[in-house]
Design goal:
411 residues, alpha/beta, FAD/NAD(P)-binding domain, D-Amino Acid Oxidase, Chain A, domain 2, nine-stranded mixed β-sheet
């Protein structure tokens, strides 16, 4: 990896990737290891970011990141193939061996999944954002044909020769293929005039970490409620759990005004039987992330492809937003490797194959997550009865459950 600044000599590479998250970094590694030269354009670090990252005292346990991902088998295989999985701090990675899903009300439905019934060793792995990005950064330091350029893009032009990005200081970056991996509010997508269908869920994902009185046995718990939204407690190593609470905005505002101790008491209404008393991890940390469905009208443009949240943002109730991004990379690498020698990496036919490859998988996840959010958000007693009956019925259909979980695993 060759670090540069925005004012460095302009360079043309096979691929330019705009973004600084795990999806952007993984795409850079995958394409570089496939033999392509890559420029990774990252924004300048926020003031104080480095200081806060190194603020923990020597010898003390690093605080647990409140941003965690439930990575499926597709993600694990991709990261393993790129020599990233083995670089993770595995002492901070928790396997998910089972899922326990409950509906709402006193007669709430129940649905359970486990690794044994799915004929697999584990359902998923819970990985902190900081752990994943540290492993990716370490791998990028040894990448031979990746240039990391720090700067802000201000203009994008595409021609028959490729894509050209101009930075704020005037320095250009040129590539046969430009990847937009710059998140839900993608600058690349906007520059390509790709429209979107946008639906706010009027919810925020409240994320925080707790210790639990009872062992979680690597079980992920989820409660679909109507008035309080959707609550998930994911296993962390030891007697710790990570909260993802998709809370209605009014409730989210209340929670963020309260202490984490008060949040633990709220959670006890749902979690006490399974996990016992919850206590906030020290140092206490909580974040609230606005939730929305974002469906771009296209995921490609001339010499441009979107990946990750730039290509699709879904409700986190299934925990597969990040996994969709890793699947984007897998399919992109496949179509690029399978292209005819006369077609460049940014050829419209290559990008059309990428778009077709991703269409069904993304659409199914969008329909499933959006449909479930609507179903469990409906505050009508007949709907409540039907959805709870549906959970109970599905729990008694092992073949259907196995197909559902196989799709979620990425198998």
């Amino acid at each position: 990896m060759t670090p540069q600044t925005a004012s460095a000599t302009p360079r043309r590479t096979d691929v330019c990737i705009v973004g600084n998250g795990a999806i952007a970094k993984t795409a850079a590694l995958g394409l570089s290891q496939a033999g392509h030269s890559v420029t990774l354009l990252v924004p300048p670090a926020r003031p104080g970011a480095e200081a806060s990252a190194s603020s923990s005292s020597a010898g003390a346990e690093k605080p647990w990141d409140v941003r965690v991902y439930a990575l499926n088998h597709t993600a694990q295989k991709l990261l393993s193939s790129l020599k990233v999985w083995g670089a993770l701090d595995m002492a901070r990675v928790a396997p998910v061996d089972a899922m326990d899903v409950k509906g709402d009300g006193e007669q709430g439905g129940h649905l359970g999944f486990d690794a044994f019934g799915a004929h697999t060793g584990t359902l998923a792995w819970i990985v902190e954002d900081s752990n994943l990005n540290s492993a990716l950064d370490a791998a990028l330091r040894f990448a031979q044909n990746v240039d990391v350029v720090t700067g802000r893009a201000c203009k994008l032009r595409c021609s028959s020769l490729g894509a050209r990005v101009e930075l704020e200081d005037g320095a250009p970056l040129e590539a046969q293929l430009l990847l937009g991996a710059d998140g839900r509010e993608s600058w690349v997508r906007g520059q390509c005039d790709i429209g979107i269908d946008y639906r706010s869920y009027h919810q925020r994902a409240i994320v925080a970490n707790f210790s639990c009185e009872k062992p979680h046995h690597n079980v992920a718990h989820q409660w679909f409620t109507c008035k309080d939204g959707i609550i998930a407690l994911l296993p962390l190593p030891g007697n710790k759990v990570s909260l993802v609470w998709s809370a209605p905005e009014t409730l989210a505002d209340t929670i963020m005004d309260e202490s984490l101790g008060e949040l633990a008491i709220r959670l006890g209404e749902y979690s006490e039987d399974a996990l016992g008393l919850l206590k906030p991890l020290q140092p206490e940390s909580v974040k609230a992330i606005p939730l929305a469905l974002v469906r771009p009208h296209a995921v490609t443009a001339p010499h441009v492809a979107l990946i990750g949240d730039a290509a699709h943002a879904v409700h986190p109730l299934a925990g597969h937003g990040m996994n969709l991004g890793f699947a984007d990379i897998v399919d992109l690498l496949k179509v690029v490797a399978a292209r005819e020698s006369r077609h460049g990496i940014g050829d419209e036919r290559v990008l059309a194959r990428y778009a077709r490859a991703r269409k069904e998988d993304v659409l199914l996840m969008q329909l499933a997550t959006d449909g479930l959010e609507r179903l469990f958000g409906a505050n009508l007693e007949p709907v409540r009865v039907v959805r709870n009956l549906g959970l109970n019925l599905l729990d008694k259909l092992p073949l259907v459950k196995r197909k559902l979980i196989a799709h979620a695993l990425g198998k």
